[in-house]
């Protein structure tokens, strides 16, 4: 029995279909975990797949920041974020901040289908794999 992971699912508008299709392809595996996402992404995935996805605010309204804060709190184990490489977003600083915080806290991140396929099929998904919790020295706190 695998431990249920907290997986954040996020996609920009031009990438939402790609993420929904990926979730459909991996529905059985994903149904064993806790899913969350930015507002519109979460809603669209729920409607298209029937999976329960906890929705935060929409990305441009602070959803990326909410998920970033969950990462800081240790409440997100991995993030699938299909961001749009061909279109600027009004909240690009929030997107950059979320990607930065995911790197800082050593969260596995996939930004396209092939890397998402790697994560979903990797030992990271099983209970045997324990990510080292990132500890910052006092001076960095
Ligand atoms: O903009 C987003 C991520 O930066 C996604 O937000 P929505 O899921 O609300 O469209």
TrEMBL record:
<dbReference type="InterPro" id="IPR004363">
    <property type="entry name" value="Methylgl_synth"/>
</dbReference>
<feature type="active site" description="Proton donor/acceptor">
    <location>
        <position position="64"/>
    </location>
</feature>
<feature type="binding site">
    <location>
        <begin position="58"/>
        <end position="59"/>
    </location>
    <ligand>
        <name>substrate</name>
    </ligand>
</feature>
<dbReference type="Pfam" id="PF02142">
    <property type="entry name" value="MGS"/>
</dbReference>
<feature type="binding site">
    <location>
        <position position="91"/>
    </location>
    <ligand>
        <name>substrate</name>
    </ligand>
</feature>
<dbReference type="GO" id="GO:0008929">
    <property type="term" value="F:methylglyoxal synthase activity"/>
</dbReference>
<comment type="similarity">
    <text>Belongs to the methylglyoxal synthase family.</text>
</comment>
<dbReference type="GO" id="GO:0005829">
    <property type="term" value="C:cytosol"/>
</dbReference>
<keyword id="KW-0456">Lyase</keyword>
<feature type="binding site">
    <location>
        <position position="16"/>
    </location>
    <ligand>
        <name>substrate</name>
    </ligand>
</feature>
<dbReference type="InterPro" id="IPR036914">
    <property type="entry name" value="MGS-like_dom_sf"/>
</dbReference>
<dbReference type="GO" id="GO:0019242">
    <property type="term" value="P:methylglyoxal biosynthetic process"/>
</dbReference>
<dbReference type="InterPro" id="IPR011607">
    <property type="entry name" value="MGS-like_dom"/>
</dbReference>
<feature type="binding site">
    <location>
        <position position="12"/>
    </location>
    <ligand>
        <name>substrate</name>
    </ligand>
</feature>
<dbReference type="InterPro" id="IPR018148">
    <property type="entry name" value="Methylglyoxal_synth_AS"/>
</dbReference>
<feature type="binding site">
    <location>
        <begin position="38"/>
        <end position="41"/>
    </location>
    <ligand>
        <name>substrate</name>
    </ligand>
</feature>
<protein>
    <recommendedName>
        <fullName>Methylglyoxal synthase</fullName>
        <ecNumber>4.2.3.3</ecNumber>
    </recommendedName>
</protein>
<comment type="function">
    <text>Catalyzes the formation of methylglyoxal from dihydroxyacetone phosphate.</text>
</comment>
<feature type="domain" description="MGS-like">
    <location>
        <begin position="1"/>
        <end position="141"/>
    </location>
</feature>
